[in-house]
Amino acid sequence: MISYIDNPDNVSSAEIVIGIPSYNEAKTIAIPTLQASLGLTQYFSDKSSVIINVDNNSKDGTREAFLNTKTEVPKIYVSTPEDVKGKGFNIHNLLKVAAELRAKAIIMVDADLTSITPEWVESFLEPIFDGYDFVVPIYSRHKYDGTITNNIAYPLLRTLYGLRVRQPIAGDFGISGKLARSFLVEQTWTDEVSHFGIDIWMTTIAICRNFKVCQTFLGTSKAHRTKDPVGLGRMFSQVVGTSFQLMSAFEYLWKDIFESSPSVIYGFGLGQKENFLEVIIHPETLYDSFIEGLDSYSDIWRSVLDSENWKAVEKLKKLKSDNFYYESKLWARIVFDFAIAFNIQEIERDKLLQALIPLYHSRTLSFVNTTSEMETRETEAIEEKLNRNFEAEKSYLIKHWDLASKNSDVSTELSKLHVND
Questions:
Q1: Residue 199 host element (H or E)
Q2: Which residues pair with 54 in a beta bridge?
Q3: Global pTM exceeds 0.90
Q4: Domains (ranges, CATH) in the chain?
Q5: Do the Cβ atoms of 177 and 101 come closer than 8 Å?
Q6: DSSP bridge partners of 16
Q7: For the chain: N or C, fewer Cβ within 10 A?
Q8: Alpha-carbon dihedral of residues 260, 261, 267, 272, nearest 10 degrees?
Q9: Could you give the 3-state DSSP secondary structure of residue 333?
Q10: Cα(76)–Cα(319) distance, rounded to whole angstroms?
Q11: Cβ contacts of 339 within 8 Å, gap of 6 or more
């Protein structure tokens, strides 16, 4: 999906590639570009390198802002066709160009980063040159930043595949050349992966294909554009849809995993400065979304949720916004019920994922009400309880998955008999 390449320095090979995916990021892209160059020249001056902006044909001057940033490291600009948008398309272009350059190590960082430092480059690349294939960052985040990560992406990944990777959709990763080539030929690449599903897809594939995965402390908290959970509907559907879809592909793995363990961690987490940008949460809007969901999606919720879970959800309408709360055990079972329906029941997947969004908002509201008086570090204990409840409910997932599969097989056979008659 490459329609345009600008390679002013005629770079034909590079041991290290730093990729910056973008769409209309003219105002911020100079920051990660400059910091990437400083990191490469400071820590890896003995290796050939290039910085690549993989763009979605931005019209705001992103290309010019990137190429005009003064750096010692050469740069390449790559764009998708004008009618092709999606972060996954950008990453595919990055991996393709990196493979053509015979890169041994690739880093990808978000274009809206304002907290990136030269040390990030060292933190990502050191593990790769030590033999790791996929490097996931660890950094402090505001307690209400990353609600998709905290409430579903991380607990589901950890529960299914047994590896604790705290920021599986971080947007910033280190990738070995070997893994990059594997990504390019992977058969599980879907339309969701071509958009916001790309990050959870890469993390899941790296784990399930038995590549060496680790985490690395970056030393500073992540500062980028924060997002209100209510406005994350499209991203939520693509991330969660990708996670659910991969459950079918790797069912043979996750059914035999019943506990999780931490990955290898590089660096130190001590002394991190927490310079969080403000994350504004609107509890009333989250509450209204849930109540409206009861009206709009009650038929889907009733058909998808186990009867006891549906009764528990129905009771929540009696709660007011300021005291809205339910146990994370119920949330885990809700997610599992939807994952089963996504993979086994005959229901429109887009509609199913839309129906899950108000419940995600209800979980976010429950978390906000629980942690409103807590510092960010204190909330990690609440998050850990959620993760342990997900793991404790895995037997529920397997039991109901197998039962739904059996019922689906019976229905299919009955349908065949009916057609034959």
A1: helix 198-208
A2: 21, 78
A3: yes
A4: 4-266 (3.90.550.10), 283-420 (no CATH)
A5: no
A6: 49, 105
A7: C
A8: 50
A9: helix
A10: 55
A11: 156, 243, 244, 247, 397, 401
